[in-house]
Design brief:
36% helix, 15 helices, 16% strand, alpha+beta, 11-stranded mixed sheet
Length: 494
């Protein structure tokens, strides 16, 4: 899956080349790493002021690494699959001598002494970090804005959000500012920005990519909270770049690397006609806006014409409402971990008034409740794995809406999103379609499959079996031949 196409000088376009094409062009000496970096910085100077996608840069370090990459190549050495390729990283990852603020002003000048493990993996493969991308405060929104760095705009419509919490990374990719980015995903933070910005995004299998160094404030190598939902993963302008990046990012680190190694299993199928596909694109709890639904229906029709076997319906034993309840509780257990005593007492009062308030329950219920909810999470995964004995992938919406206008009103619970069918609740609905893959821990790839009548991108969510990340990525790659893949936003094509 990661074999790069042969690059010819006349066809190589640095701004929107894939990471694989860039790496091949550097190895073939069509372009040097230093030249490619210079072009990338020129584009950042031209376009980033409009987007505000990249919020921190260290050009001196990047230039030094590019010169080192060129010198190594001249001596016959290639450092890895991403040798000389410019990439961005989400602001929330520790990177030596830079702040990872998560949008908190108190951390604006607190630099990390160490680099996050996932970012180290990128650099070990030869990637050159050109900057860090914008996020919402504490990664807690589907829009990327904060009091330190301001608001990131969507390159398809500057009045709209690029998504969150990896919104800066998705916007930068779509505008041709770097070849890859690394983000994180708990409630769709990779998938929803990919959908809103028309790029590819991949939420890996749980625990496949290290989250060491993914925390607010300086990281010194100490462990963070254990994660039962969140993952780190790549976004790119081609599906196969996702596989390339995942092979770099995935696997054991530190002590675990002494005991086991990891490989990306081959995709189950290599032709759309051989895929056994399940899908659900309508659910009363989170109805899809008609302009988005039309793109999904067209994609399904194309899959039928391609000969894929399609079956509508949730897997046996999967109850979307129960799934959302367990997801909400476990998410609440994470976000309430550092509550003050006063806040916890307020949560206790809310829970007493409404025992169905899972966020409040997560703050005050005993550890036994967490164990029971975790058992439900693992049971959910088992049901999905049973389903994947007879199906290869499962298709679902990424979100009920395309990118929506900026809305920073507070509290977040009062926000609503306008659709052709009327307003829909913001916080209640945006996590609905992404929660299934998060709760089960299975991989999910988002692929651009078209645009609404208003010209906004639409991304399809593709779930695959646990650890078989290449299956959803390959399906996304094949789908691009059928319905088209990444397209550069018109205002950023130059």
């Amino acid at each position: 899956m990661t074999t790069a196409p042969t690059v010819r000088p006349a066809t190589f376009t640095p701004a929107f080349a894939t990471a694989a094409e860039m790496a091949e062009a550097i190895r073939a000496k069509v372009i040097s790493a230093s030249e490619l970096l210079s072009i990338t910085f020129q584009r950042i100077d031209l376009h980033n002021p409009t987007l505000n996608a990249i919020v921190w840069q260290d050009r001196e370090r990047a230039i030094t690494r590019a010169k080192q990459a060129d010198a190594a190549l001249a001596a016959g050495t290639v450092s890895g699959a991403l040798h000389g390729v410019p990439v961005t990283i989400k602001e929330s990852f520790a990177y030596r001598d830079s702040p990872n603020t998560w949008g908190l002003p108190s951390l604006a000048h607190a630099n990390s002494p160490r680099t996050a493990i996932a970012v180290e993996h990128l650099e070990s493969a030869g990637a050159i970090v050109i900057g860090k991308t914008n996020v919402p405060v504490m990664l807690g929104d589907w829009q990327s804005y904060n009091p330190i760095y301001g608001t990131t705009n969507n390159p398809w419509d500057l009045t709209r959000t690029a998504g969150g919490s990896t919104g800066g990374g998705a916007a930068a990719l779509a505008a041709g500012l770097g070849a890859l980015t690394i983000g994180s995903d708990l409630a769709g933070s990779i998938r929803i920005p990919a959908h809103f910005c028309g790029v590819y995004g991949h939420k890996p299998s749980l625990d496949l990519v290290s989250l060491a160094g993914f925390q607010p404030g300086p990281w010194d190598g100490s462990p963070g909270y254990p994660m039962d939902l969140a993952v780190a993963g790549p976004l790119a302008r081609s599906a196969r770049d996702l596989a390339l990046a995942l092979e770099v990012l995935g696997g054991a680190d530190a002590d675990a690397a002494k005991a086991w190694t990891w490989r990306l299993p081959a995709p189950r199928q290599t032709s759309l006609k051989n895929f056994r596909v399940g899908y659900v694109f309508d659910e009363a709890a989170a109805p899809i806006a008609s302009d988005v639904a039309a793109v999904y229906e067209k994609t399904l029709a194309e899959l039928r014409r391609a000969g894929a076997t399609l079956e509508r319906g949730w897997p046996r034993g999967i109850d979307p409402d129960a799934q959302m309840s367990t997801f909400g509780y476990l998410l609440g257990a994470l976000v309430t971990a550092d509550m003050s005593p006063d806040q916890r007492e307020q949560a206790r009062a809310r829970f007493k008034n409404d025992p169905k308030d899972v966020f409040s329950a997560a703050a005050v219920e005993p550890h036994a409740r967490w164990l029971h909810e975790t058992q439900r999470r693992l049971s959910c995964r088992a049901r999905w794995q049973d389903y994947f004995e007879t199906h290869d992938v499962f298709l679902a919406p990424t979100a009920f809406t395309a990118a929506f206008p900026h809305d920073h009103s507070e509290p977040i619970a009062t926000r609503a999103i306008e659709t052709p069918e009327g307003k829909q609740p913001y916080a209640e609905k945006l996590s609905y379609w992404v929660s299934a893959a998060t709760l089960a821990g299975v991989p999910a790839t988002v692929a651009p499959v078209g645009r609404t009548n208003g010209g906004l991108p639409v991304g399809l969510q593709i779930l695959a079996p646990m650890w078989e990340d290449a299956t959803s990525i390959e399906f996304a790659a094949l789908l691009s031949d059928l319905v088209g893949g990444f397209t550069a936003p018109p205002e950023f094509q130059e």
